[in-house]
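FAQ

Q: What does a record look like?
A: Structure on top, sequence underneath. For example:
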């Protein structure tokens, strides 16, 4: 019931944000925005409360794949809620909240691997930082796809009331690079903390995860530098982001699936 409540709050918030951008709902746009913010904020609060209860256990952190997906959903909802402060981004906020609703589905799933009991606080902090970085960069990937769809619609000259759901392309790109810079910074911190706190990083089963994480970090770093010093934008920047994110997915979710589902081991 708790999970369903969060899902419904996110769905209602997303639909209200989307409706507030459509011309047919101009008369009730302000009321829809207020309801959307209230629903989204309530969903975020309940989601955070439930996720903390699931992840923070007496014997350590629960770092299951289901928990990671749920954490990403929470970050999508938070980014959507704050993004909606810009009226132009409420269509995108709606999409992020709808995806956050989907991500709440595995909240009640119990991990098939032991919890991270016995780990030092440094390792547990590294795990949380890494999960937070993946969540931010997942949100960026969704925004990047949103920008690609928007670019194609503009070039195709598609005219419909649905265009109101899209922010100006420049606004979407600014949001993408803001999330990229934040995600790169947190990912860098995760990598550095991994080298500092995880012993024999390349000698363990984490070697492939580390290598792909470093490659993703390099691509995101190039993208951030290109934006700052050369003003990169458009498809080139978006595709570079998506390549970086693909390597990150292989590093994290690919490694987790093999370890937890096939080898029945914890990544830690």
């Amino acid at each position: 019931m708790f999970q369903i409540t969060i899902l419904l709050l996110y769905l209602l918030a997303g639909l209200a944000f989307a409706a507030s951008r459509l011309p047919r709902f101009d008369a009730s746009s302000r009321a829809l925005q207020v309801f959307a913010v209230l629903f989204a904020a309530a969903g975020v609060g309940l989601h955070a409360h439930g996720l903390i209860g699931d992840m923070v256990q007496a014997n350590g952190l629960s770092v299951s794949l289901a928990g990671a997906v749920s954490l990403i959903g929470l970050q999508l909802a938070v980014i959507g809620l704050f993004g909606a402060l810009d009226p132009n981004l409420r269509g995108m906020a709606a999409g992020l909240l709808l995806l956050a609703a989907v991500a709440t589905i595995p909240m009640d799933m119990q991990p098939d691997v032991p919890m991270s009991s016995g780990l030092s606080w440094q390792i547990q902090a590294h795990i949380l930082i890494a999960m937070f970085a993946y969540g931010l960069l997942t949100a960026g990937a969704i925004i990047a796809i949103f920008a690609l769809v928007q670019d194609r619609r503009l070039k195709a000259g598609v005219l419909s009331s649905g265009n109101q759901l899209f922010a100006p392309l420049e606004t979407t790109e600014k949001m993408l690079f803001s999330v990229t810079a934040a995600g790169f910074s947190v990912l860098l911190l995760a990598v550095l903390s991994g080298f500092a706190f995880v012993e024999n990083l390349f000698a363990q089963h984490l070697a492939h995860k580390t290598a792909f994480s470093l490659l993703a970090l390099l691509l995101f770093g190039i993208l951030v530098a290109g934006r700052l010093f050369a003003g990169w934008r458009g498809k080139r920047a978006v595709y570079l982001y998506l390549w970086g994110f693909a390597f990150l997915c292989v590093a994290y979710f690919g490694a987790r699936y093999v370890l937890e589902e096939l080898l029945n081991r914890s990544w830690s």
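Q: Is there anything notable about this one?
A: Confidence is low (pLDDT under 50) at residues 110-115.
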